[in-house]
Structures are given as structure tokens and as C-alpha cells.
Amino acid sequence: MTLPSSPPALHFEGVSKTYPGQPAPALSDLTLTVARGSRTGIIGRSGAGKSTLVRLISGLETPDAGRLLVQGQDVTRLGRAEQRQRQARTGLVFQHFNLLAQRTVLGNVTLPLELAGQPRAQREQRALELLEQVGLADFARRYPAQLSGGQKQRVGIARALVTGPDLLLADEATSALDPETSAGILDLLTRLQRERDLTLLIVTHQLEVVRAATTHVAVLDRGRLVEQGPTRHLLAQPQHEVTRALLDAHRPEVTLGAGEVLRHVNLDDLGAQTLAALARLGARLVQAEAHPQGVDAWLVVREDAGDLSALRPSAEVWTPAPVSA
Ligand SMILES: Nc1ncnc2c1ncn2[C@@H]1O[C@H](COP(=O)(O)OP(=O)(O)OP(=O)(O)O)[C@@H](O)[C@H]1O
Ligand SMILES: [Mg+2]
Does 5 contact ligand 1 (Cβ within 6 A)? Predict the structure, then answer.
């Protein structure tokens, strides 16, 4: 007997969207599948269409053309009641938290349940469980103004999850936070995604976010999907100039000698074996950054150093374009 295969979390099929009065489409003939249980990053420059994609999923906008299937259901054809049901199964986390200043932390987290008509005792119990999970059990009676940015975002995450969604959309959720706080929020999102078996969609313009928290990436440029794939593969061998430009921003400042080139490699680790292999190649390690996908390393090697894939059987290497003088 074969089990029916479960549909992907999201499937965009030729989706286009132009805002009224705008000359160019915000999204253009977008076809993209997001696997259930993945942590998918959506990256691209400002105005690429990332937030529009999120607004289509959350039902705040409707496509002009094409189909959008959420868990196999064509959401362009839902009635009002079904739309509301679907929205309860989609959690949203915003860049500026969007908390209500006159409500306590608890009051902010219970709000979606209040709107759904759940009795007070029940919704408060549920909200307290969520606050516990985001590490804010002791903050329930505070007001947003009495919280740090990171704490506000934790409240935002608790609120997004209080209705028990299976899909969590985070639009620039860490862009307003300092790097350390941002890393804490990404850890929390990753942990919750695993524990609750969520599909997590992370919209960002920061490469660090993609590295730290995603399994897959889709790159948008001017409303079009220009590249997609597993994060590790895509960051090691970016094909499109938008992706390359994002990675290039992390290129270390080095002075190259005659016949030397700068190359980017994704390594498994920086263990003794790897270091020995680097030495054999005569490679100078000029920058290394560990992340859940491995180690992003920038090497200076001789142009004729040969095959860097010896560094690791599956090593993926990218030689950036030469720096123009
Ligand atoms: N409500 C709106 N009305 C008219 N045009 C809009 C509206 N929202 C977005 N746009 C336009 O649609 C395009 C895509 O915008 P979108 O907000 O999706 O980009 P983005 O990738 O999220 O950018 P950013 O990184 O700056 O947040 C832009 O050209 C933008 O000006
Ligand atoms: Mg945006």
C-alpha cells in the first residue's frame, strides 16, 4: 500500500502581482515550492518582492494571476470562513514587533485567541505556555515599553504561535536587532521549528540570517525567482549576480600577490585533517566563519593550485570575480 504523499507547505504556480498604479509587477510569474518542515530563506534586494510574497501567503493580498496552494489547498478559491481558518494556521512575525503598547505581554499574546472567541482562562493558560517556551514566563504582566528589542520579538513569536499554526512567516524578524540578540532569536525560531514541526519562511536581506537558520534558499530579483536550492550549496556556489553580491559583501580585504586568487570554500570543519589539506595546497586561510551548515572559508591560493575539492569530497568552491582596481 502506498501512503498518499503529503502536499508541500507552499506551492506558487505562475503567480503574478502588480499593485494598483504601479508600472512594474511586484511578483512576476513566480513558481516556487516550499517543502513541509523546511526552514526556507527568501532573499533579495530591497523591492525584490519578498514582503509581497509573504502578504500573499498570509492572505493580505491576492494574486492577479496564477495559483497559490497552501498545504495543497488553492487559497485563491477559499471562502471567507475558510480564509480565516487558514490565517489562524499561519503565524506572522514582523520586523518592528507590532505589539500593542497599552496591553501587557500576556494581553498581546492572548489577542489572537480573544479574536477567535476563546474563553479567558483557556487563552491565558495557552499564552502562558507559549511565554514559557520563549523564555518570558516572568514577564507576563509587563508592558512592551518595559522590554528590550529581543524580548519584544520573543513576545511577537509567542503571539504568532499561540493559535497553533503549522506555517510561520518571519519578515525581517531580526533586522531591528543587534547581532547577538539576532542570533538568539534565530536560535529560538530554529528550535521552535524543530519542536513543533513547523514550516518556517524567513524573509531577510542578511546573509548571516540565511546561514544561521535556513535549510533552503530562494533568491528573488525584481519580482522574479532567479535562484534556489539547499542553503549550503547555494552559498558555496552562487550562480546569480544578486546572490554573489550578497556573498561578496563578506569578502575579506586582502592583498593578493602575483598569481594568487581569492576563493571561497564551504568546509565541513577546521579539524587537523582539513588544515593539513590546506597546507598541502599551499592555501592561506584568511577568513573563516562557522555556522550550522559548516565553515565558510576564504582562501588565498595560487591560481594553479588545482582542485580544491580535495579539501572535502563534497567541497564546493566558488572563485569570486576579481576585484577591479
Ligand atoms: N502597498 C503597495 N502599493 C504599491 N506598491 C507597493 C506596495 N507594496 C509594495 N509595493 C512595491 O512592490 C515592489 C515589491 O515590494 P516588496 O515590499 O514586496 O519588496 P521587498 O523585497 O519586501 O523589499 P524590502 O527588502 O525593502 O522590504 C516594490 O517595488 C514596492 O515599491
Ligand atoms: Mg519587505
Answer: no
- Closest-CA residue, ligand 1 atom 27, reads 46
CB 35 within 8 A of CB 231: no
Q: What is the pLDDT along the chain (325 residues), one digit of tens a residue?
A: 445 578 999 999 999 999 999 999 999 999 999 999 999 999 998 999 999 999 999 988 999 999 999 999 998 888 888 888 888 899 999 999 999 999 999 999 999 999 989 999 999 999 999 999 999 999 999 999 999 999 999 999 999 999 999 999 999 999 989 989 999 999 999 999 999 999 999 999 888 899 889 999 999 999 999 999 999 888 878 889 988 888 887 788 888 889 898 888 878 888 888 888 888 888 999 988 887 777 888 899 998 887 777 676 555 666 666 554 3
44 Cβ below 6 A of ligand 1: yes
Task: Give, as one character, the DSSP assignment of residue 163.
Answer: T
131: CB partners within 8 A, 6+ apart: 105, 106, 109, 137, 139, 140, 155, 158
Atom 17 of ligand 1, residue of closest alpha carbon = 51
User: Ligand 2 centroid vs 53 CA: distance in angstroms?
Assistant: 9
For ligand 1, say whether the CB of 242 is within 6 Å of any of its atoms.
Answer: no
Nearest ligand to the CA atom of 206: 1
46 lines ligand 1 (CB under 6 A): yes
Q: Residue 61: how many CB atoms within 10 A of its CB?
A: 17
How many angstroms from the chain centroid is the CA of residue 318? 23
pTM for this prediction: 0.86
Q: Which CATH number fits domain 10-235: 3.30.310.10, 3.40.50.720, 3.40.50.300, 3.40.920.10?
A: 3.40.50.300
